[in-house]
Amino acid sequence: MQNRILIPVGALILTIVFTWLFYQEWSFFRWMDSLFLTGLSLLVVGFMMILIEGQFFSAFIRSTKHFFASISKKEQVIREVEEKKESAPGYRKHFPSSKIYLSTGVTFCVISLLISVIYVYFGR
């Protein structure tokens, strides 16, 4: 429950800090740029968490280990002596919730896009 409030509020404060750090002065449109970039960053982090939780990269790791073990004569001899079979790595990573990052990122991007579209079509 606390992460549901902490992450969006922290990201919103981070957009204000980014605006002052990168642009040296605050304006609404520069803050919108910062809001959009923070939203994109949160989307990337959320999707990376989903990929890692879903073990997307485990097939690549397993095939690479199998390839190097098959071309290494030393590894083959060790397996024959110890009578080992190939075993899949038992690594699994769980993150608290990637939905918070995804929803915050989508919200930030949509808000900044809507305000930009409203300004371009109706603000002139």
UniProtKB/TrEMBL annotation:
The chain crosses the membrane at residues 5-23, 35-52, 100-122. InterPro entries: DUF3899. Residues 33-116 form the DUF3899 domain. The keyword Transmembrane helix applies. Coiled coil: none annotated. It comes from the Bacteria. Keywords: Membrane, Transmembrane, Transmembrane helix. The keyword Hydrolase does not apply. Pfam families: DUF3899 (PF13038). This is DUF3899 domain-containing protein. It comes from Bacillus carboniphilus.
